[in-house]
Every structure is written in C-alpha cells, then in structure tokens.
Amino acid sequence: MSGGWTPIVVAALAAIVVAAAGAWLTALGPWYRSLRVPSWKPPDWAFGPVWTTIFTLTAIAGVLAWNAAPDGRERTWLIAAFGVNGLLNIAWSGVFFRLRRPDWALVEVAALWLSVLGLIVVVGRHSGLGAVLLLPYLAWVGIAALLNRSIVRLNGPF
Fold this sequence. Notes:
Blueprint: H1 6-25, H2 30-34, H3 44-68, H4 73-98, H5 102-124, H6 128-133, H7 135-155
GO cellular component, one term: membrane
Family: Belongs to the TspO/BZRP family.
Keywords: Membrane, Transmembrane, Transmembrane helix
C-alpha cells in the first residue's frame, strides 16, 4: 500500500466516509432552525462546498504525507492522526445535531481543532505542502468553534 493508486483510493474513500457520516448526523430540522444564530453565520448552502473542499485538501495532504513517509512507525502515526481527526469530525455533528447539545459540542470542537493542529504537525514532518493544505481546515474549524460558542451564548442553557 506504499504507492500507486492505493493511497489515493484509500484517502478518497476515508474522506467520503467521514463526510457522509457527518452529513447523515447533520439534521437541519425544526430544532436547528429555532436556534438563534449570529448575523455573521455563513449561509447553510455554503457548508457543503466548504466541507467538500476541505475533505479534498485533507485527502491530498494525506496522500502526499503517506508517499513521503518511510514505512513503519511514521505511517502508523499518520493513520492514527487521520483516524482520530475523522472520528472527532463525525462526533461533532452527532453531539450538536443529534444530541442537541451545542454546549457539549463546544468542548468537542476544541478537541477537533486540536486534532487538526496535530494533523498539521504529523503531516508536516513529511510534506510541507500537505501541512499547508490543511490550514483551511484549521481555519474553518476555528470559525465553527466561534459559531458554536455564539449559539451556546445566544440559546443556552441546554
């Protein structure tokens, strides 16, 4: 699995699974629509294209790092970092939308942001370009955290 198309296929499938699971857990129903949100919240239609871009860049970063990393422990770190990040990414949607706990999601999004930062460090050991490609992800999760915080402040307690 060290070269050729395999890393590309694995990265693309992993990105699709994380995106699909997060989308499945995202319920924009009456509860969500009843929340007060800040005036600067991006429109709902923007989230799909932004996340598609982020997942694409993340998959590319993963492939670049994988191809540059030596076999063994370094690749294990890459898999672990991407796995933890993917789980935290999915979990945020479940906590916020399914459990309807933006207050808990605020704690979770901090962990997600830290996992993206960790991903940048782990990927950056092998690919500077890969690390740079993850910066929009870090920025977007930062915006999501600020939005999450605003929703908690405007609507709490939960």
